[in-house]
Each structure stands twice: as C-alpha cells, then as structure tokens.
Amino acid sequence: MTEHACVSFMLIKDGEILVEQRSMTKEHDAGLIAIPGGHMEPGENPEQTLIREMAEELEVTPTDYRYLCTLYHLTTETQKIHYYVINSWEGTISAQEADEVYWRELSTANLDIGSDRSAVNEYFRVIKTQPDFFVA
C-alpha cells in the first residue's frame, strides 16, 4: 500500500479542540469525528500544506503554530500524518469540506481516529514535560 503524506491541525483554545464531522461523501473516514487536515500536494512541505489546508477547510490562516508529532493512520490508504498545534489564527472558522466543525473539551474529545487520539495524548505528554513548548 502506498504511503500518503498528510497534515492535521489541532486548533486549541481555552482547553478545547476544534473537531470535524467528516462528510459522508469523503473517500477516507467518512462520517467520523476527527481532527481536521488533508493530503500534501506534490512539491509541498508540511508547513505549506498546513497553511493551504487550513485555508481550504476552515478559511483561516495560522499565526502561531508548532509541530507536534508524526503518526500513521491506516484507512483505505496508509496515511503518514504530521500533526501541528495551532494556538492562534486569523479569520473566522467556517466548515468548507466537513459537514460540521465544533469545539470539544480537549481532555474528552472522543475522536474516532486512533492516530488523532494519540496526537492528543502526545500534546498532553509534551505539555507536562515541556510546558513552555507551545508558548510563542
């Protein structure tokens, strides 16, 4: 199975994370509750993908972000997902590709995708060991 590079973005605000209800028409993970993200295009690096995908999916631009980790997600394809934590952004969040986006308590987000749950756990692990890591 071919590996596909992806980027997911964890928008975090006041102890909550923005999640999406994926569209039932999506090729991968249709209908699931997930951290928003998308596939890297040929020639893009992860940060370029982050900025493009946030604009396409949410109509916002990140202004303060940090790389968190890279995890694999096995769906109908093998996805190598680069996770970023977004502490601030410009624009008003608007779901463009998902059925819905909404805020959930970070500690109880109940995400459907295992790698997303692992990324949230990694966020808490890094915050406990390096609390200044996410401070701009």
Structure description:
With 136 residues, this protein is of the alpha+beta class. The protein has a single domain (3-129), classed as Nucleoside Triphosphate Pyrophosphohydrolase. Helix content is 21%, strand content 40%. It has 2 helices and 7 strands; from the N terminus they run ββββαβββα. The protein has helices at 46-58, 114-129; strands at residues 3-13, 16-21, 33-34, 37-39, 61-74, 78-90, 100-105. Strands 1, 2, 3, 4, 5, 6 and 7 form a 7-stranded mixed beta sheet that branches. β1 (3-13) and β2 form a beta hairpin. The chain is globular, with a radius of gyration of 14 Å. 30% of the residues are buried. The model has no long low-confidence stretch (mean pLDDT 90).
CATH architecture identity: Alpha-Beta Complex
Tell me the number of strands: 7
Give, in order, the helices and strands.
EEEEHEEEH
CATH fold title: Nucleoside Triphosphate Pyrophosphohydrolase
In the CATH scheme, the class would be Alpha Beta
Shape: globular
Mean pLDDT: 90
Low-confidence stretches are none
> CATH superfamily membership, which one?
Nucleoside Triphosphate Pyrophosphohydrolase
- Could you give a short account of the major beta sheet? 7 strands, mixed
Q: Percentage of helical residues?
A: 10-25%
Alpha-beta classification: alpha+beta
Q: β content, as a range?
A: 35-45%
Number of helices: 2
Number of domains: 1
Radius of gyration: 14 Å
Taking the alpha carbons of the first and last residues, their distance comes to: 39 Å
GO molecular function, one term: 8-oxo-dGDP phosphatase activity
Pfam families: NUDIX
InterPro entries: MutT-like, NUDIX_hydrolase-like_dom_sf, NUDIX_hydrolase_dom
GO biological process, one term: DNA repair
